[in-house]
Design goal:
This protein is mainly β and about 120 residues long. The chain has a single domain, classed as Carboxypeptidase-like, regulatory domain (Immunoglobulin-like), CATH 2.60.40. The chain is built from no helices and twelve strands. Strands 1, 4, 6, 8, 9 and 10 form a six-stranded mixed sheet that branches. It has a four-stranded antiparallel sheet with strand order 3-2-5-7, with no helix packed on it. A hairpin with a 5-residue loop joins strand 2 and strand 3.
Length: about 120
């Protein structure tokens, strides 16, 4: 089993976004795991099966943010998320997720899916 964690911050001020709603769903599945960020904008989800996931982060006053990431067996994926004030300029891309795994891992862009191609050995 793997995990995902990260920090949610306001892109323009750098301030942590407390009480943001983080919804994580395995790619092409419907089971949603939900957690809120703490007072310093941090969230953690453990016990995730290896695979490809999507995270949606929302909070009143901000546009919903979205990120795709991969979890490997016994791996920790760090997905930091930027939030943008509602009605602001079009947001740039989110920070790139970081994958830490004790198993040998190759992650490449998957053809046609827009999702990373997961290969954990």
């Amino acid at each position: 089993m793997g995990s995902v964690s990260g920090t949610v911050t306001d892109r323009f001020t750098g301030a942590p976004v407390a009480e943001a709603n983080v919804a994580v769903v395995a790619f092409a599945e419907s089971n949603v795991l939900r957690v809120k960020t703490n007072r310093v904008g941090r969230y953690d989800l453990v016990g995730l099966a290896a695979g490809q996931y999507e995270a949606f982060v929302s909070r009143d006053g901000f546009d919903t943010s979205y990120s795709k990431f991969t979890v490997c067996p016994a791996g920790e994926t760090v997905v930091d998320v930027w939030m943008f004030s509602r009605g602001g300029a079009a947001p740039p891309a989110q920070p790139t997720p970081k994958l830490f795994s004790t198993s040998p891992t190759i992650v490449t862009n998957g053809p046609g899916t827009g999702m990373p191609d997961l290969r954990c050995y």
